[in-house]
Write a structure and sequence with these properties.
The complex is a heterodimer of chains A (310) and B (154). Chain A is an alpha+beta fold and 310 residues long. Chain A has 8 helices and 18 strands. Chain A has helices at residues 43-61, 69-73, 86-99, 109-115, 135-138, 160-174, 259-268, 274-277, and strands at 20-26, 29-35, 78-81, 139-142, 145-148, 180-183, 187-191, 197-203, 206-216, 220-224, 230-231, 234-235, 238-239, 244-245, 249-256, 284-289, 294-296, 302-304. Chain A has an 8-stranded antiparallel sheet, covered by helices on one side. In chain A, a hairpin with a 2-residue loop joins strand 11 (230-231) and strand 12 (234-235). In chain A, helix 1 (43-61) packs antiparallel against helix 6 (160-174), helix 3 packs parallel to helix 7 and helix 6 packs antiparallel against helix 7. The two termini of chain A are 37 Å apart. Chain B is 23% helix and 24% strand. Chain B is extended, with a radius of gyration of 19 Å. Classes of the chains: A alpha+beta (310), B alpha+beta (154). The interface between A and B is large, with 84 and 69 residues. Strand 8 of chain A pairs parallel with strand 5 (130-132) of chain B, so a sheet runs across the interface.
Chain lengths: 310, 154
């Protein structure tokens, strides 16, 4: 699918240009980093650090790599000692699991594989689709230690990329940057921008149209419209109980303090109401329902297009 | 900042459907606030400044259309009338045609808050820094699909 980036080049000169920017491929998607305060003294060193950080994360949490910890966990029960960053990730996943009645779960990996979303992207569904086990039957988490009572394929698609975007932003802040944006194609985090970034909210039905423009200077914005990542009867947001893709929500955008939370609740909104998710998480949202209607929180930081005079 | 109003691009039937997109559950209104209230967004959509029009021209006049849409309770319609002059909507009204109780309420909320209707704008015509949407996600996945299509093609 062609990138729509060429269609959105800013025309106006009052749009802020970053001091330094970098577009690159990682974990199967396009990333963009913009540094708005100053350019790095040694760009190559910074790029190497970011690449290493992403690679390390991927080699822990990706189910698409034969060498990853997640792949090992799918082959053997036992105790696994994850990196420091696992504690927050697993804690958010547990809260998300609890407030979606288990419908958003890291244990959905095998079901995704059975529907065809596997490491080779076979996109062919098996005739038998696995049951998704209950968390407490298989998995226990204590700090950064995961214990599996039987091998299980974990999938961190619900919140993993958002978390990684936060970690990349943390790394940039460690390098002294105070104004930055990390955009991991659908998961974006901005910190400390003087001028908010204007981000078009793409119409899920028509990529040349926008439903509105969000303005983000110090928050995370996540968008999810699964119709673009679809195959056969499925797209990638699958209900573990029905074993079918969720159909009544067409697109979701969320804004939260971290991309970890924004990404988590963006997935959650396909399965649970904003009110329920707000028992656990703080966020703003826009939900586009299957009938085209919009449901949004009053403080979602966007202008949805309006007519002044009618 | 230059832009043209979205509505000049629409024919009335499409306009009616787009207006229906604006049926807002609970009647929540988006304030045009920037993040953390630091700036107010007043530009996109609020002005009727037009840039040079692209291809379409519209005949002046008043048009009626009935748009249909799906709700969890079934299909509904809303009747919309717009008056166009030089391609600009100068007047409009809408009639509640919902049958389901909740749809009636939603349509009424919409009609009462008519000035906040939502109309899509072309991405290419508004000044953006970035886009949030699914077309940019998972290039790897899309690449894989393309390879599979190529493989599968006979």
């Amino acid at each position: 699918m062609p990138s729509s980036k060429s269609a959105i080049k800013p025309k106006s000169s009052n749009v802020t240009e970053p001091a330094w920017q970098w577009t690159f491929e990682a974990i199967g998607t396009e990333w963009w980093i913009g540094l708005y305060d100053f350019a790095p003294a040694n760009p190559a060193t910074l790029q190497a650090k970011i690449t290493a950080l992403i690679n390390e994360f991927d080699s822990t949490y990706s189910r698409f790599r034969p060498d990853s910890l997640v792949t090992k966990m799918s082959q053997q029960a036992g105790a696994y000692y994850l990196p420091q960053n696992a504690e927050l990730l697993m804690s958010v996943y547990r809260r998300l699991y609890d407030c979606t009645d288990g419908l958003v779960t890291p244990l959905v990996g095998q079901l995704l594989v059975d529907t065809g979303y596997d490491a080779t992207y076979s996109l062919a569904a098996k005739t038998e689709l696995s049951r998704v086990p209950a968390w407490d039957n298989v998995l226990s988490v204590s700090g950064t230690t995961l214990r599996l009572t039987s091998p299980a394929l974990l999938d961190f698609g619900a919140a993993g990329k958002g978390y990684l975007a936060d970690l990349v932003a943390d790394e940039l802040q460690k390098e002294g940057h105070r104004q930055l944006c990390v955009d991991a194609s659908g998961d974006m985090v901005c910190r400390g921008l003087d001028q908010p970034l204007r981000i078009g909210l793409e119409d899920p039905g028509d990529s040349t149209q926008a439903l509105g423009v969000a303005q983000i200077s110090n928050r995370a914005l996540c968008g999810s419209a699964p119709n673009r990542r679809a195959w056969g009867d499925y797209h990638h947001i699958i209900d573990p109980q029905t074993k079918q893709s969720v159909q009544n929500v067409r697109a979701v955008w969320t804004v939260a303090d971290t991309a970890l939370v924004a990404d988590a609740v963006a997935t959650g909104l396909f399965f649970a109401s904003p009110e329920t998710l707000r028992e656990q998480f703080e966020f703003e949202y826009v939900v586009v329902h299957a009938d085209g209607s919009l449901q949004y929180s009053s403080r979602f930081p966007a202008t949805l297009f309006t007519e002044e005079s009618v | 900042m230059e832009e043209s109003t979205g509505h000049t691009k629409q024919i009335v039937a499409t306009l009616a459907v787009l207006i229906i997109v604006a049926v807002i559950a609970g009647g929540a209104v988006v304030a045009g606030r920037g993040d953390e209230g630091a700036s107010t967004s007043t530009d996109t959509g609020a002005r009727t400044t037009q840039t040079a029009n692209q291809n379409a021209t519209y005949q002046d006049g008043t048009y009626q259309a009935t748009g249909g849409y799906m709700t969890p309770a079934g299909s509904e319609t809303i009747a919309v009338s717009v008056t166009l002059q030089d391609g600009v909507v100068t007047d409009t009204s809408a009639t509640n045609q919902a049958t389901d109780a909740e749809a009636k309420q939603n349509q009424q909320d919409f009609i009462d808050n008519y000035k906040q209707k939502v109309i899509g704008k072309k991405l290419s015509q508004i000044s953006l820094d970035r886009v949030s949407g699914s077309s940019l996600t998972s290039q790897g996945f899309n690449n894989a699909i393309q390879q599979i299509r190529d493989k599968a093609e006979v």
